Amino acid sequence: MEGESRKRMKHGIDENGQEVIDGAALVIVEKEETETNIVGSEEMELNIAHIFEKIEHFTQMVSELLESGKAMFKELSNEFEERLISIHKEQMEKWQEEIKELRLLDASNEEASGILHNARYVLQNPHIDS
Question: Collapsing DSSP states into helix, strand and coil, what is residue 39?
């Protein structure tokens, strides 16, 4: 509103280079500015106060939700971390067991291979007495 009223003002420059505003236009601007500063009725002030209470209540509720959300995510994060570590530990144990079984199988195969190699040698060389 103020911007509109300033457009209606008549401006001019005096001989000293100073800006001059027409007196009638100045009165209109002052009247419009005064109208915007008028205090509302008691009912209006109560309505505004009620809106401010709603704003305060909503802000408090959002703050509480943020705090409870942070706590919930922290708890979930801790549970997730613990579970992930547990899964990792279980998998490492399984793979270590597989490695142990493979080493035992390899040792058994090496032993069997040695026995077969000796048997083959004995069969290929019948002149050797045991």
Answer: coil
For residues 48 and 40, the answer to whether their CB atoms sit within 8 Å is: yes
The beta strands (E) that lie in 11-128 are given as 11-13, 19-21
For 37-52, how does the pLDDT look when each residue is reduced to its tens digit (9 = 90+)? Answer: 556 688 999 999 999 9
Which residue spans within 1-130 are E strands per DSSP?
11-13, 19-21
Cα-based distances in Å from 79 to 46, 53, 84:
49, 39, 8
C-alpha torsion angle, residues 63, 64, 70, 73 (rounded to 10): -140
Instruction: Dump pLDDT digits (tens) for 74-101.
Output: 999 999 999 999 999 999 999 999 999 9
Burial 38-72 (b: 16+ CB within 10 A, else e): eeeeeeeeeeeeeeeeeeeeeeeeeeeeeeeeeee
Structure tokens at 69: 């959300």
